[in-house]
Amino acid sequence: MASPLEPVIGNWYRSSEGSTFEVVAINEYDQTIDMQHFEGEIEEIDNDTWGDMTLMAISPPEDWSGPYDDLVSDDFGDVETAKKPENWSGFLNDLDREG
Q: Total structural domains in the chain?
């Protein structure tokens, strides 16, 4: 079954084999599509191969750590607390002013 989906840069897809990937580039001149799999591998396929694939459009994964398989939960830091600068007045106040 041919894929009725057009490749769109930034969109995520799932193949019938279960792999998930994002289209990261489309080369009109070479007629190729670059896609990055969730695990980080980048693959280039031609338009004919894309048309032969059975694909489903999906939402981007919430877990962005796929390409970084050696991370542990401590590597993410504190994701529950919003970060803010200590000095809300801005860094420009700390600059020397010319008289």
A: 1
Q: What is the pLDDT of residue 78?
A: 55
Does a structural domain hold residue 1? Answer: no
Kindly state the DSSP code that residue 61 receives in the 8-state scheme.
P
pLDDT above 70 covers what percent of the chain?
A: 60
- pTM of the predicted model as reported, rounded to 2 decimal places: 0.63
Pairing of strands 32-37, 20-27: antiparallel
Alpha-carbon distances of 90 from 29, 84, 94, rounded to whole Å: 47, 11, 8
Angle made by CA atoms 68, 81, 38, in degrees to the nearest 5: 20
